[in-house]
Amino acid sequence: MKNILTVFFLIFTTISFGQITISGNVVNIKTNESIAGANVFISNTSYKTVTNAQGKFFFEKLNIQKGELIVNALGYKHEVINIDTKTEKNITISLEPVAKDLDAVLVRNLEKDGYQKWGKLFIDGFIGTTHEAFDCTIENTKALKFYYNKKTQELSVSANEPLKIINKALGYQIDYTLESFEYNSRSRILFFSGFPVFTEIQKGKRKMRKWQEKRNDCYKGSIMHFMRALYRNKLPEKGFIVQKANKVLNEKKAAYKKELRKQISEQSQGNGVITLSGRGDNNENVMNEPDSVYQIISQVLPADSFAFAIDSVTAGMYFEKHLIITYKKQNLNATVSSFVKLLLPETIGVFQNGYYYNSINFFTERYWAETEKMARMLPFDFVYKEKLDE
Q1: Contact between residue 181 and residue 157 where contact means Cβ atoms under 8 Å apart
Q2: Which residues of 113-126 are buried (b: 16+ CB within 10 A; e: fewer)?
Q3: Which residues have a Cβ under 8 Å from the Cβ of 217 and sit 6 or more positions away?
Q4: In angstroms, how far is CA 214 from the centroid of its own chain?
Q5: DSSP assignment of 272-336
Q6: In 3D, which of 239, 222, 241, 170 has the Cα closest to residue 371?
Q7: pLDDT tens by residue, the chain, 390 residues
């Protein structure tokens, strides 16, 4: 199966989806009554609407192939529907009422002063720490609930309503339905998932031009940029270099830690205070290094070694172990690198707008892990403009 997947690559034809419409109705799963005023949107886009008095909704002129349709309504659990705009035209979505005793079930691990204790960690992990993050605010932080398990050292965050994010750096209001936010302080692995919908903030022509410039900057070298370039088989032309890499033990740090443990063991045999023999700042710097390092093990990979055609409108990506993806910033003598791996041996599906499925399987480190946060996030219907309006 894997050998077949990596044999060939096609340059995909561009298909217009401009006239596609999707409609549907939202009902209570228990009573089958229509739900008016439910928010309906396609995740990671600016496509959104509200159900009318009869619980009906309607989208037209969609330019996406596949996506996730999200429905939110007060007093109900949100629902996620995977849609294919080629086949689905009318959808009935049933929502389940929220259990009244849900908070009572979760209260045992609830941190009373959670935001004061964990708020900065959440903001840094969710919004980001880039300079764009300084112009981002969450207006309803009281909706956040923090749960901490001391035994496993795991922090979980939930929200009882969509988070309202104002991104003044890029000119978006984002309503984010948070599904999961998990941080393990032992492994230092952070994971969050959810469903954002974007509304462009309307300002004067000069401000809109400035925001487009900033959006263009965030787009360059992003995962969206990479996926769109991969779909069109234009990775080198767009500034991306892909190579294989191995993640190996940092032997220098491992040896130093072993020596420290030996000294602790020897000195603990006596009755005095344990003191470690210092060896200068160099050894202190070693302890600040990562436990593992990456080694590049190949020349630049051709696209057909990890990318292929799934069907006429879908590209696929599959690889083993790690890849290092390097992007050369345009007009700058600088590069940024991201390390990626597949958590499971499953294919990543990619569409022409940069949307990709099985995204939870696409694990990133370094540049993308640091920058792919809400402060720099763009909707999948974002259009990169080479020439900006004056």
Answers
A1: yes
A2: ebbeebbebbbebb
A3: none
A4: 19
A5: S---PPP--HHHHHHHTS-SEEEEE-SSPPPGGGTEEEEETTEEEE--SSEEEEEEEPTTSS-EE
A6: 222
A7: 333 332 333 333 333 444 567 899 999 999 999 999 999 999 999 999 999 999 999 988 787 777 889 999 989 999 999 887 776 678 899 999 987 655 544 455 788 889 999 999 999 999 999 999 999 999 999 999 999 988 889 999 999 899 999 999 999 999 999 999 999 988 888 889 999 999 999 999 999 999 999 999 999 999 999 999 999 999 999 999 999 998 777 777 777 777 767 666 665 555 444 444 444 445 557 666 667 778 888 789 999 999 999 988 899 999 988 999 999 876 667 889 999 999 999 999 999 999 998 888 899 988 999 999 999 999 999 999 887 655
Stated as kind and residue range, the H or E segment containing 356 is strand 356-357
Neighbouring-strand partners of residue 166: 137, 173
For residues 25 and 326, the answer to whether their CB atoms sit within 8 Å is no
Q: What whole-number distance in Å separates Cα of residue 227 and Cα of residue 353?
A: 8
CA–CA gap between residue 240 and residue 233 (Å, rounded): 11
Structure tokens at 13: 């034809």
Token couple for 248:
């190996």
In the sheet with 66-72, reading across from the earlier edge strand, the strands are 48-50, 39-42, 66-72, 79-84
Q: CB-based contacts of 224: which residues, under 8 Å, 6+ apart? A: 354, 378, 380, 382
User: DSSP character for 57?
Assistant: E
Helix boundaries (H) for the chain: 2-5, 102-106, 114-126, 205-219, 223-231, 251-267, 281-287, 367-371
Q: How far apart are CA 342 and CA 339, in angstroms?
A: 11
In order, the DSSP letters of 105-121 are HHGGGB-TTHHHHHHHH
Torsion, Cα 121 123 125 126, to 10 degrees, reads 150
Smallest CA-to-CA distance from 323 within 367, 386, 258 is with: 367
Largest interatomic CA distance in the chain: 81
Contact between residue 174 and residue 137 where contact means Cβ atoms under 8 Å apart: no
pTM of the model: 0.81
